[in-house]
Amino acid sequence: MTFKEKRVGIHAMLYPKPFGIQAEWNWGKGPEYDVATQSIQTKNLQGGYVQAMLRLPTENMGPLMPYGRWQHYRGGWKAGTNAPRLETDEFELGLEWQPWKALEITMAYARMKRAEADERRAGRAEGNLIRTQVQWNY
Predict the structure, then answer these.
(1) CB 72 within 8 A of CB 48
(2) What's the pTM?
(3) Three-class secondary structure of residue 121 per DSSP
(4) Which Pfam families has this protein been placed in (predicted)?
């Protein structure tokens, strides 16, 4: 079975020198499970994110980049079985540190509110997340 999918999206990036902003948004129609008809229908979707960051050079420690990111989405999750509806609202604050050119260390806090895609656990899921990441670029 096939479903019509039509989207339009925009992406913009202003590299941090020292202030930067990145944004991506899309609108359109795509597959989504309809609870009332118990079938997959083509429905409206929209969402994306906006992230602002600041690049702060330091004398001997390597650059620091604090950032904030807001994400919002309403629509079907076509990669999920039966394209369940997702409702996502997230806000993240973080700090990336690059002590050497090849090494990046990120620490972040996120506040999330999501609709569960699994019908057995229908409802909103809310939570706080603390994330750390170490990345080696080669």
Answers:
(1) yes
(2) 0.83
(3) helix
(4) Porin_O_P
